[in-house]
Write a structure and sequence with these properties.
This protein has 423 residues and is of the alpha/beta class. The chain has three domains: 156 residues, Distorted Sandwich (Spo0b-associated Gtp-binding Protein, Chain: A), CATH 2.70.210; 168 residues, Rossmann fold, CATH 3.40.50; 61 residues. A hairpin with a 6-residue loop joins strand 10 and strand 11. It is elongated. The protein binds guanosine-5'-triphosphate (GTP) and magnesium ion. Guanosine-5'-triphosphate binds next to helix 1.
Amino acid sequence: MQFVDQCNIYLKAGNGGSGVVAWRREAHYPEGGPWGGDGGKGGDIIICGDQNLNTLLHLRYRKKICANNGQNGQTKLCSGKKGEDIIIKVPLGTQFFDRDSGKLLVDIVNNHQKFVICKGGKGGYGNAHFKSSTNKAPTLYENGDLGEEANVVLKLKHLADVGLIGLPNAGKSSLLTALTNAKPKIANYEFTTLTPILGVLENKKRKIIIADIPGLIKGASENKGLGFQFLQHIERCQLLIHVISLNKADHSKKIYDDFLTIQNELKKYNKQLIDKQQIIVANKIDVDGSDKELEILKEKIKKQSIIAVSAIRKDNLTTLKNKIIAICQKQKKKKPTESSTITLQPTKKFDRKFAFKQTSPNEWTITSKYLSYWLHKIPLTTKDNIYRFNQKLNNCNVDQILKDNGAISKDTIIIDGIQFEVD
Ligand SMILES: Nc1nc2c(ncn2[C@@H]2O[C@H](COP(=O)(O)OP(=O)(O)OP(=O)(O)O)[C@@H](O)[C@H]2O)c(=O)[nH]1
Ligand SMILES: [Mg+2]
């Protein structure tokens, strides 16, 4: 199976549907009044943690994911249908970053954890909404809000509790098989494991997830071999198990020197990795001459205790299991980190201050989020709507501010390419 742990996607939530202008025309209701319904809300884009997924492969070719727009309102006070939400399932440990700012938007760590990453636009009101004692037949209506959009980078960093590291052929996958329910490929050649594989060590109190990653070699931190690109998957482990083969045939130099090589590569990747708690496992104790190699290793590595095992013969695995469980039980369960929304379209909360520039002798160009928002929202197609937008201009005191800066009556104002006149 292919393994993908990073991808870029453009996300766009649905736009809200527009409200409509409609009139009640029925027998016995000579002045039926406004009857136009509101637009439906645009679909949200929601991400959801799924413990059955292990890769981002299903998203690799999805360059763009868009939710449906809300339907426009209808006559007889009928609201438009809501645009359907889109749920994107991701493996646990997937982080979403904003591509432009690099900011972490959300970290999905729990099964079924949901997060609305792009909110669908609210539907616009139809004319029935605007009926009042002073305006019994309004031709007021609104467009829906735009759905939020975002360019995101997804990075999968597995949430295993324990990471298995070591040279190729050390017996990492054999150990994973012996300790957990996983069935990784095992073979007597280097780089048998090509992608991270997770296994679960069942235990009364909690499940312990163990990650097996491709073997590391000298120069891994300069991208030699395979393991380095996968080290991100053990970044969040609390415990690392460094597996060393006691079979001399697996080493081109002294076993202790190979041990140092791996420790060095870890340090070069990220200093935090080397500070993690480690168990050193000397594997293949069943091989002839392994006793002697173990003695030498113990002599050299005095500071840390070494657990000697045979993954194949299952020697001493209970001791190892108990030690793993003892360490992991001290750890707290991971909680979702604080997540933030990308609020690209905070409705109506825009600052009323605006920027302006005199673009020719009698022409002023205005930039304002508040006015742009309302210009999108209020189609200038009915008298009432034009009047309503004028009120928005007055809210910003546009005429007065421009006049204070030299504008005169009948000068042109341009907002988003649309022309207005100074009063
Ligand atoms: N004699 C003996 N051989 C073992 C033991 N554990 C693993 N092996 C053998 O060592 C070889 C490599 O084992 P793997 O488990 O594939 O090693 P790995 O560390 O996952 O290797 P890569 O995936 O290439 O990094 C296989 O032929 C295993 O059968 C053991 O305890 N004793
Ligand atoms: Mg392997």
